[in-house]
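Here's what a typical entry looks like (1,2-diacylglycerol 3-glucosyltransferase):
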Amino acid sequence: MKIGFFTDTYFPQVSGVSTSVRTLKHELEKNGHDVYIFTTTDPNVTELEPGIIRMPSIPLASFKERRIVVSGVVYAYYAAKELELDIVHTHTEFGMGFLGKYVAKSLGIPCVHTYHTMYEDYLHYIANGKILRPYHVRQLSRFFTHRVSGIACPSQKVVDKLLEYDIDTPLSIIPTGIDIDKFKEVSPAMTKEVRERFGIADSDLLLVSVCRLSYEKNVQTIISGMPKITAALPHAKLLIVGAGPYREALEAQAASLGLTEQVIFSGEIPNEIISPVYHAADLFVSASDSETQGLMYTEAMASQTQVVAKGNDYLNELFDDRSLGVTFAEDHEFAETLIAYVADSIPLDKELLQEKLYDISSTAFGHRIESFYEDAFDYYANVIDRIEEEEIDEKRFIPLRFFKNR
């Protein structure tokens, strides 16, 4: 099968979407498929990359580390036609996503979509949330997903939101998988080097947060809880890994609380070398409100690092055994939850962990997407193609709907 991914975000831009797209590309290619990524240009790209087709783009006004396509419709169409794509898979609801839908329609092939981002959590980036409202997100989501042949949702949280938007396109829950082998084994020397680099003693309790430093990731709640944590656990240190527009505010918050020795900012660490950081941690911590899934949770799990995180339907199910981690419901519960979890000193259940690892693996991810594509081809032939070829009245047509948790 020849597959075209269309995404506004790809490496060297670092994000969960970039990681998900690259992971899926590698897994599908391992299974014998050809995958081509249509994405935006980036000034940090210095050489041609096999299988990556870049469209002219400019920085997004309110989110300058991300880019939006400005031209290349004809080029993308002829490139896709020459590659003889069998299916288009979009990973954005914006520029490259609409370009992917146009290419699919022009070539007469199915288009499927992954809904990666809960945009209602990001409205504050545009005029401080005074222009765009949740209603506009609903309308955009309905408009974009119209006549796609399936939507891959990373979690039940995304499914619930799309159902709330009254989207009737087939939905399928497919969490992004990770390369388990990449996180399984790390030498003691590597974890020791991480601690030494950031001044963490062997006797310190190291809490690690890994995320983009933006308001919606809610790192401020973790920092707010540190005075109570250090009062109960004086040897606790917090290592915050990541970059982003909220870093200065977080650094100022830590300083105002007198935590400059206890809270350490590492800056961004490339995903390729993040594994030793997880292994060096005693606990992975997060209070994020905006995750559709959150790869860092599964990366921590694969690294055999226990987790304390703000819960949602996905995380509550992922950490359904306290030996793997624990969730809390409200921001103010973070510190007490962590202190109690440390006091309980529950050993990691490695047998249970092994049972979980396949479900969060990139191997499982690739197989689930393959099955998703097969359903999409059927849906396209039996519904989308019939609507277009026979001019069936869409408003009266009841689609063949599938909803699967793979």
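Residues 180-357 form a domain with the Rossmann fold fold (CATH 3.40.50.2000).

More examples are in the samples folder.
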